[in-house]
Amino acid sequence: MTEIPFYVLKPLRSSHIHPILDRDRVISNTRKGIETQIYLDLNILSKIHESISKSNPADPSVVAIVQFLHSFSGGVYLAPGIALEEVAPHFALPIYRSFEKFCSMYSLNFSDAYNAIPLMPNKRDILRFFDLSSGQQNILATSYASLLYVHYIHTFFPRFSNQEKFKLYGDHIASSINRFDALGYAIAMLYFTDASNAIAKIKRNFIKQPENKQKVLKNSLNAAWDISFYRCIAYSEVLSKVQQDFSLRPMECWCLTFDAGIAALSELIFYDEESTLKGMDSASIALDSEILKYNDDLAHNFELFNYRNHVRRALHQVKDLLGEEHTYGSLATIKKFINKTEESFYKLQ
């Protein structure tokens, strides 16, 4: 982690030890023919927009960002595109223009990526999951369903123990939608436990419990965007390494964010590079043995999480050996599950 007022994260890595992005690493990547891409979170873009629109270039956070980027003397690509998918429609173009002005003002020696889209797409107001485009629904469906069902269990099964809640969650997700979301599953595992400081940050960021239960839908959708942002960064790197026939250059992908919740998530949960490159949606969790020793719920859930991950990986390998296709729940099935779960919260009105 960095000591400046933002976080530099790498979702895809080989161990819980977080690598450091510095000038030497960028130079090494360039020599190896690897592009270094930095994906900007929406909160970074919003802060840049605020600074540019208010003509306040001395904003400490923005100054820190500029100093950080200048330390590379070029050699990296900045990617705002994923975050702009999440932003409110009326805000997307102003943020994008502020970002371009920011790069121009500070003489940042960065060029657009070769696959960059020069114009912002037309967007419309997004109030709920079913207002999204079919492409966006496909991206968010599994994570949104996963987070929504955590809220459902919390609301409708209050007398269950944490261990019972997590088992119910895993059993029902597997039987109802048959599409595994490793990151959402890991977050659920952490949610159904007593919180350490790091876990409490993750719970506050991804599973906010509002007094008005209808806000559950909005909070879950926002959190699904965060999960998708984290996942997309990992899989952008994976695709660049395994899909050379599409003329993608190998990339190393990082995230720049102000979000302490995502930073806490990255400390504990990351995409395992070896497994993910083999085609498995494989989120790994790094937990200190001392934490497990004094938290029975967490130890139990962690054991169940690892067992299900082990079984899933074994089935994946067996199907590969037998030449069988991997079958997953369809988008239509997941949408039915989402619709039914949402209706349960509407009835609480």
Features:
alpha/beta, 4-stranded mixed β-sheet, 3-stranded mixed β-sheet, 349 residues, 8% strand, 7 strands, 58% helix
Q: What would you note in describing this structure?
A:
The chain has 15 helices and seven strands. The chain has helices spanning 23-31, 42-53, 60-70, 81-86, 89-105, 134-156, 162-176, 182-191, 197-206, 215-242, 260-268, 273-277, 289-293, 296-322, 331-346; strands at residues 7-9, 12-13, 35-40, 76-79, 251-257, 269-272, 283-285. Helix 6 (134-156) runs parallel beside helix 8, helix 8 (182-191) runs antiparallel to helix 14 and helix 9 (197-206) packs across helix 11. The model is unreliable at 119-124 (pLDDT under 50).
Summarize the entry for a quick read.
With 349 residues, the chain is an alpha/beta fold.
CA(first)-CA(last) distance: 43 Å
Radius of gyration from the alpha-carbon trace, in angstroms:
21 Å
Name the shape in a single word: globular
SSE succession: EEHEHHEHHHHHHHEHEHEHHH
Residue-averaged pLDDT: 79
Q: Got a strand count?
A: 7
Strand count, sense and closure of the main sheet? Answer: 4 strands, mixed
The residue ranges in which pLDDT falls below 50 over 5 or more consecutive positions are: 119-124
The portion of residues forming beta strands comes to 5-15%
Strand line-up of the largest beta sheet = 1-5-3-4
Given the structure, what is the number of helices?
15
> Pairing-aware structural class of the strands and helices?
alpha/beta
Helix share bin:
55-70%
